[in-house]
Amino acid sequence: MRLLATNDDGIDSPFLHVLVHALRNAGHELYVVAPKQEQSWTGASKSRHRPVVSAVVDRGLGCPTWTVDGTPSDCVNIGLAYLLPRADGASRAAIDAVVSGMNVGFNLSLGFILASGTIAGAWEGALHGLPAIAFSQDLTHDAFEHIRQGLGPDDALAATLAISAAHATRLVDELVPHTPPHSFTVHNVNFPFTCRPDTPVERTVPARLLVEKLFGPAADDGTHRFIYSDNFEDVSPRAGDSAPTDRATIFAGKISHTVLDYTKLGWL
Known about the structure:
Elements: E1 2-6, H1 14-25, E2 29-35, E3 54-56, E4 65-68, H2 72-83, E5 97-104, H3 109-115, H4 117-127, E6 132-137, H5 141-148, H6 155-175, E7 185-191, E8 201-203, E9 209-210, E10 233-234, H7 246-251, E11 255-261
Parallel strand pairs: 1-2, 1-5, 2-4, 5-6, 6-7, 8-11
Antiparallel strand pairs: 3-4, 7-11, 9-10
Helix pairs in contact: 1-6, 2-4
């Protein structure tokens, strides 16, 4: 298949590189259009009020690669319209699916799903009528800080990433052919830490977290700083009242697969 890959952690994220190499090694034709810098928590925003720059880059991915100094949504929109090759007269590139990730950290629950730049990159593909999958990798706090300091994955995380990427490749092969065009759905897949070759996949629904107090109090200059905390209240229905939640599934050590059907928004 011909796949457009993006992410929200930026072009230099090792998680993106692991996923792209796995998909290429499986025989897929890859094109990468990723943000020049990290764009986490940007949701589906687009750079309406400033021009953005796209550029050809070489990051050793073995496939055509560009950066865009904007959001993941910018990347996919610009990539499909202008950067990727297309047939004469076609309005956009002939791509089979958009794959976004692999995200540094999970994207679980309603609050995080709607804020996620990774999921937004996939959603932009769905807005173009394409099958779309977002992949995210859970990790420990220490491993997260290790990545943020530019030190790369440690041995345990690198091993899990390789296995998660193998699962992702299999899921691309399974999900893309069975996702109709113009379905306006996104497959949100989260991998646990650690992930094993035999880790099962479970269909889930988004957990319902109360995502409060993400900013600190005003400083002397009146500014509020983002201060992430995972001390959120889970108000999801009790287990057994509905399908398992994505959050409970990851904490149980399983792979979470949520189908985000945007055609259901506004309907009871």
